[in-house]
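step 3/5: co-fold with beta-D-glucopyranose
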Amino acid sequence: MQLTKDYSTSLIFKIGFLAALAGLLFGVDTGIISGALEFIQHDFQLTVVQEEMVVASLLIGAVLGTLISNPVSHYWGRDRALLFSAIIFFSGSILSALAPNYYLFTAIRLILGIAVGMASFSAPVYLSEVAPKQIRGTLIALYQLMITIGILLAGLIDTYFSYKGSWRGMFSTIAVPALIMLIGTLFLPRSPRWLMLKGKKEEALAVIKKIFTNSVEINKEIQELENNLKRTQEGWSVFRLGYFRKILGLGFVLQFIQIMTGMNTLMYYAPKIFSLIGFSTPPERILATVGLFSLNVIVTILSLFIIDRWGRRPLSLFGLAFMMFGMLCLGLGLNTEVYLPLRNPLAVGGMLSFIFGFAISLGPIVWIMCAEIFPLRSRDIGVMFTTATNWIANAILGGFFLSVMKWIGPSYTFWILAFICVLSMLYIYFFCPETKNVALEMIERNLLDGKPLRYLGEDLALSAPQAKPACKQA
Ligand code: BGC
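step 4/5: write tokens
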């Protein structure tokens, strides 16, 4: 992250910390279930469908949360939407730890999901409105990193409590980061863009003066805000515009690919997969899962350094090749016809290869691209719908994965995911634009000119030197 004396480093750290916490809670709340599931299943005597509902309830809530987050943050402000989600995170964590039965537990997870969905929309939007544009892209990538750290933290909490067999301990512990986020959001500056939208120009100026220390930057920022406000956000009427539907289609498919290639089958059900390959005790299985989660964090850090060098397309194709190979091997490793001593290395190697491929590519790239591809006037609604797609796909995958695995067997299930990786590579090769080093304005111009999706960033060679800083905008 490049911090210069043009803006207040301490305030940016405070804002970054918030992004960290919203991302962290997103990760913790989605990740905690992997280690808790078998204890909940045992305590509440769940059927396979009920187990799937325990996982899917949070994801369905997240779809609802994403859809209401736009109006909530429009009326009360992005920071208030975050505060609202922190309150739900905190109370939901405690209530889920106390839930007396499956029905109440599932209902509370659904409400917690609303907080996850609201945070997953509001935090990146808030960041893109408050942070200096030079570091907006980096902050979104860091947000993804914090999601992976949250998942890892959930794995560590799961490991600790798995020795005591206490899923209630797992859920009550995650109230701690939720409380820190709740207190943190109370001290956040309001978004200057939102303040301007509400006609509170003086307050907006005060925030800008706190963020920027250099008077030239302050004036530039005010000018930019005023210009941007002239291009107010479109409402639902935006769906009548052909170019919006086209770019929304790209965002939908990217989010769909990110989820349907199967990363979260490993995130939510890794201990189950480890039990299929002979890890016999819950702590053993959860510890192995923590190993996977750690790899996810390490490779995501690596990706931060290469995304802007390699570009989105080559890195996505590279990552998808590892993901496809990983799912193929995992399917072989879970196949009883395969020579026994080879099965464990194939399954474990397959999972590692898949996670490496995902974390280096689709994990961060899809979130960054969805923040880059929409014209400014329709960005809120575009990001809202693509984020909702992510959660819908997640709910479908989380909700049906165990049943499909029971129905067609684990090998075919993972081979289908490998096939989806191949289809995804074809889609990216033929339709996905390269947005590395391309000014967002150029993407917008190309889109309005009716250029095919694949060529939306085509002036890259001509404009790369001047456009380079603008690619960081979100
Ligand atoms: C995805 C999540 C996933 C996480 C894993 C995110 O980009 O949206 O669904 O669990 O990456 O690191």
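step 5/5: annotate
Confidence is low (pLDDT under 50) at residues 463-474.
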